[in-house]
Design brief:
62 residues, 18% helix, elongated
């Protein structure tokens, strides 16, 4: 049985959830990672990638 509760049915969202949402909203390519210790969110990391457009199929490693 899942203990997940939808955000719409939760009257007060945890502060960390607002931070995660803000980090995801402005992200085009990348990762948002949540670190948990003893059942509590202790750290939120955001890694953003910048994609460059170039000739199709071209690779610098060839």
């Amino acid at each position: 049985m899942s203990s997940q509760v939808s955000a719409a049915s939760t009257p007060h969202l945890p502060d960390w959830l607002a931070i995660v949402r803000a980090k995801v909203e402005g992200l085009r390519f990348g990762v948002v990672q949540i670190v948990v210790h003893d059942g509590k969110v202790t750290q939120i990391e955001r890694t953003e990638k910048t994609r460059l457009s170039g000739p199709s199929g071209a690779s610098r490693d060839e």
